[in-house]
Every structure is written in C-alpha cells, then in structure tokens.
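Re: [ENG-882] Designed sequences occasionally contain unexpected residues at chain ends

Forwarding the minimal case from QA. Structure tokens:
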C-alpha cells in the first residue's frame, strides 16, 4: 500500500494506523490459511476464539488490567452504553440514584438516558458552555449513589479530565470512547470503563467494556439480554454473534500499540502533538482561540475558533486545508469552528504539517 496522501483529522470514525490496514488487507481474502476471510469465519470456530482472546490479552497487557476485571466486546456503541450502564448498575443500591458529572454533550446525553431508569443527580451546576471542569470542592456527590458517571474526554467540546475523580468508594463509571489508550490509566480506580472503538482503537461496530467482577449480576429484569454485562461475561462476549471483523481490527490495533511502546509512549507522543497545536494557538495573538480552560484541555480533540468565530474565514481555512489534503477539520455543528483530532494514529509529521499550514494561514489572513 503506497503511503497515503490524505491526512485524516476526523473525530470518529477516525484514522487507523497504516500498518493495521496493510495487515488487514494482506489477510483479507485468506485469513491464517483458513481459505476464508475473518468476516466469513464462524464466531464459534477456534480461529475466531483465538482472535477474540488475543484482542482481550492485548488489551489486558496494554492497560495492566487486574484479574478481577472482565473485558467485554459489545455492540450498540457509546450510545448503547448510555442505556446499558443504568440498566446494569442503577439498582446497585437502594434508592436507584446515580451521580452524573456533566462536562459536555456526551455526558449530558448519558445523563438524559439514565433518567429513564432511575434518579439522576447532577453533580455539577448547570453550565452555559462546556469549557472546563469546576473544582472538585464544588461538586455535589451523593454518598448513597449506585455509581458516579463521567466522560473522560468530551470529544465535541475538547474537555478532558487529567485526574480521576475521587468518589469515596462509590463505583466509578467512565466513558473513555475518545481517549482510551492515549495514556496509561489505573484501572483499579474504576468500576466500569467503556469505549466505542471507532475513535482511538479500531473501527465502528464494537464497544469495549472493562468491568470489576463484583458489579456483574445486578441488571434490572427489563435489561435486554445482549446488554446484560453478566451474560456477556459468562459467554466470552459471544452470547450472540459478536462484531467479528471489528474485534479482529481492534486486536491488530492493540498489537500495533504494543509495538509503538504502549500507553506510556502514546502519552508522550500525544502530549507533544497537542502542545504543538495549543502553543501555536496561544501564540497567535488571538487569531486562533481555544476556548477551553487550560487545566482541562483535551490532548485528543482541540476545538479552535478563528478571529472569535469568523465563520467566513473558518470556511476558507477548511477549504484551503482540503487543498493540502487535510480533511475532517470542521468543528461539530453544535460548536462550529475548527476541531483538530489527534488520536494515537496521527503522527508527529502529520501534526507538524498542520502546524505549518496554520501558521501560513494566519500570516496570510491576519
Ligand atoms: C463518539 C462518542 C460517543 C458515541 O458513540 P456512538 O458509538 O456513536 O454511539 C459517546 N461518547 C463519546 C465520548 C464519544 O466520543
């Protein structure tokens, strides 16, 4: 596969490492001398069992997942987990209450969905714009909550937690869809972590769930069987046909990550990439503005406005970027502007090309 011209700064589905695509291409028609594609393998075959076990072991190794945690490969995406989390955990304690820390669109949507299944306590005061995380001394945590929920990285607003919230023993549930494996993380601090694959660890179709085993077996009677964590855990995520090809791709991404030096190496690279863009923004004399509080700025998704939201100029920026083969830089429709997504697969060289373009653009349009 010739090196690809296009630089894909998409927020998700996002860029995959070229080595992963190459490997998938090489094996596409004849996987491991089976004579068929992974897509055509039985999910009960020994070949596929190896694929799913390899993916799980790759992840366990990369994140040092303790033995008392299960790894599940589910479907329904991040939105599916907005429902699955309350369906499985809302009744953990009497009163069926859950704490939601809302710092952007995704956690807001999760809280809205959870409200169907129990009482949702909003931990933070309602915010006009999502541009930061209020100090923990201002949080209203309920010690009787079944769980505390938050989103580690708000993909649309570019607000990221750089510390893990303290919950005094209440199980912590985290949506890591857009920053899982971008840095090391202490799994033992969490009750549940979940992540849709299509941002940082694979292609759409599979959703990873990492769950402490004492939290299995509390699903509401109405919980759909395929969303029941205990049933999925008891069936090696094969209660029904899992998204076999997506799991295979995820396994290749984990192998690639290991070869790059794992989460530690990614953290260093991601910090360098993000700093390059933030520094450029902060030193642009207000030409570029990143609205997020410096303490909570995301290393993965950087929302930027040009000249305080000059939509005409922002459109020119996007058009000119496209001419330089840089795609998917448009901000989410709810916030506008530019959004630079710098997931693991985006290289330093690609980030430098964008930085050069941004500097030239500023010089030409200031
Ligand atoms: C993309 C995203 C979601 C939604 O994922 P779907 O797979 O489209 O349902 C949820 N949370 C975060 C943080 C996301 O980035």
């Amino acid at each position: 596969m010739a090196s690809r011209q296009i630089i894909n700064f998409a927020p998700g589905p996002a860029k995959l490492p070229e080595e992963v695509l190459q490997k998938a291409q090489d094996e596409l028609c004849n996987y491991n001398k089976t004579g068929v594609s992974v897509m055509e393998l039985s999910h009960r075959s020994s070949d596929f069992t190896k694929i799913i076990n390899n993916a799980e072991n790759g992840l366990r190794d990369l994140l040092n997942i303790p033995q008392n945690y299960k790894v599940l490969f589910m479907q329904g995406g991040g939105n599916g987990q907005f429902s699955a989390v309350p369906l499985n955990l809302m009744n953990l304690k009497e009163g069926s209450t859950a704490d939601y820390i809302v710092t952007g669109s995704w956690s807001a949507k999760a809280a809205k969905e959870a409200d169907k299944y129990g009482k949702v306590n909003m931990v933070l005061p309602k915010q006009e714009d999502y541009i930061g995380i209020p100090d923990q001394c201002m949080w209203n945590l309920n010690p009787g909550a079944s769980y505390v929920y938050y989103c580690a990285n708000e993909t649309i607003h570019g607000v990221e937690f750089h510390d893990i919230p303290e919950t005094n023993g209440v199980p912590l549930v985290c949506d890591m869809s857009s920053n899982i494996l971008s840095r090391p993380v202490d799994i033992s601090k969490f009750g549940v972590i979940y992540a849709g694959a299509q941002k940082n660890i694979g292609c759409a179709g599979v959703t990873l769930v990492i769950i402490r085993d004492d939290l299995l077996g509390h699903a509401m009677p109405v919980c759909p069987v395929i969303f029941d964590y205990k049933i999925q855990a008891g069936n090696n995520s094969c209660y029904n046909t899992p998204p076999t090809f997506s799991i295979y791709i995820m396994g290749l991404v984990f192998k690639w990550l290991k070869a790059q030096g794992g989460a530690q190496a990614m953290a260093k690279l991601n910090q360098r990439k993000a700093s390059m863009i933030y520094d450029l923004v902060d030193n642009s004399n207000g030409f570029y503005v990143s609205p997020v509080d410096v303490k909570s700025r995301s290393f993965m998704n950087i929302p930027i406005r040009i000249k305080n939201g000059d939509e005409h100029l922002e459109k020119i920026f996007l058009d000119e970027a496209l001419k330089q083969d840089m795609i998917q830089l448009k901000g989410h429709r709810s916030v506008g502007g530019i959004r630079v997504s710098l997931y693991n697969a985006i290289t330093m060289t690609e980030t430098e090309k964008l930085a050069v373009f941004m500097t030239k653009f500023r010089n030409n349009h200031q």
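QA comment: On inspection the terminal residues look reasonable. Residues 12, 77-79, 106, 151, 155, 175, 177-178, 196, 199 surround pyridoxal-5'-phosphate (CB under 6 Å). Proposing we downgrade this to a documentation issue.
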